[in-house]
Amino acid sequence: MTVKIFDTPDVQDFLKTVAGFDQAGGDERAKQIMHRLLSDLYKLIDDFDVTPEEYWSAVSLLNALGHETQFGLLSPGLGFDHYLDMRQDAADAEARRTGGTPRTIEGPLYVAGAPEAEGFARMDDGSDPDAEVMWLTGQVRDVDGTPIAGAKVEVWHCDSKGGYSFFDPTQSEYNLRRTIFTNGEGRYRARSIIPSGYGVPEGAPTDQVLKALGRHGERPAHIHYFVSAPGHQHLTTQINLAGDKYTWDDFAFATREELVVEGKRIEDAAEADRRGLEGVFT
Ligand code: MBD
Ligand code: FE
């Protein structure tokens, strides 16, 4: 079937009716956006001769994504999260807000309300004896390099099997999630465990979409951050642990050169703890 009806007056009038253009109520921006969205999709159906079977299988897929709350997971896979960041970067550049650690995407797995600590936090609940200990230390500075005391550093990451607390029911509440306020020198420290990479659940609706595109759903090992302080722009970012197979092949497009960090292995556990507690990693 190769009928082309999109450009006919009937279809154009119909689109306006569907988008509520001839109704007084509702929201003007919602109408404009819906009209554009529907127009693009109607045109796509016409241009690609989308069959009813294809259309209804797309509806099923959307239902499955919603049922499994996976819109937030497919979103970075389709590049929307990174695209919004690119727009923020462009807005910052235009406003001459330059310097500082680059932003990258939040992802769908943040949970508010993590336990708070001053200066130092142990992030893991100790339930994974096979996991390797990881120390994280850092300093929050403004774009001029001045340390910021009392900055809020929210950190979250997955366990050694790629699971995040709250989404992985085997983990304790807030495992690997902490809010740490920087000390007088703007520094924070955390003792945690090395996270593994993350993979989209096999066979899940998000996985089905990626497979149809010939893509995988893997992310390199990473650690999420929100950094904020009064009078400063909120930063959403991540660090990637260097040497991961997926560092430059992240399904969520979140890797940035400046955010790839090389961990330093310390074989002596007591030495690692001593250095971590002192915040010295040279
Ligand atoms: C993650 O852990 C993540 O950070 C993103 C962006 C998407 C899926 C899982
Ligand atoms: Fe993540």
TrEMBL record:
Gene3D superfamilies documented for this protein: Aromatic compound dioxygenase (2.60.130.10)
Lineage of the species this protein comes from: Bacteria, Pseudomonadati, Pseudomonadota, Gammaproteobacteria, Oceanospirillales
EC number(s) reported in the record: 1.13.11.1
Name assigned to this protein: catechol 1,2-dioxygenase
Pathway annotation from the record: Aromatic compound metabolism; beta-ketoadipate pathway; 5-oxo-4,5-dihydro-2-furylacetate from catechol: step 1/3
Keyword Hydrolase attributed: no
GO term, biological process aspect, one: catechol-containing compound catabolic process
UniProt keyword terms in alphabetical order: Aromatic hydrocarbons catabolism, Dioxygenase, Iron, Metal-binding, Oxidoreductase
NCBIfam families assigned: catechol_proteo (TIGR02439)
Stated family: Belongs to the intradiol ring-cleavage dioxygenase family.
One of the record's GO molecular function terms: catechol 1,2-dioxygenase activity
Pfam families on file: Dioxygenase_C, Dioxygenase_N
InterPro entries for the chain: Catechol_dOase_N (IPR007535), Cchol_dOase_prob (IPR012801), Intradiol_dOase_C (IPR000627), Intradiol_dOase_core (IPR015889), Intradiol_RC_Dioxygenase (IPR050770)
Record-annotated Intradiol ring-cleavage dioxygenases domain positions: 136-164
Co-factor requirement: Fe(3+)
Catalytic activity: catechol + O2 = cis,cis-muconate + 2 H(+)
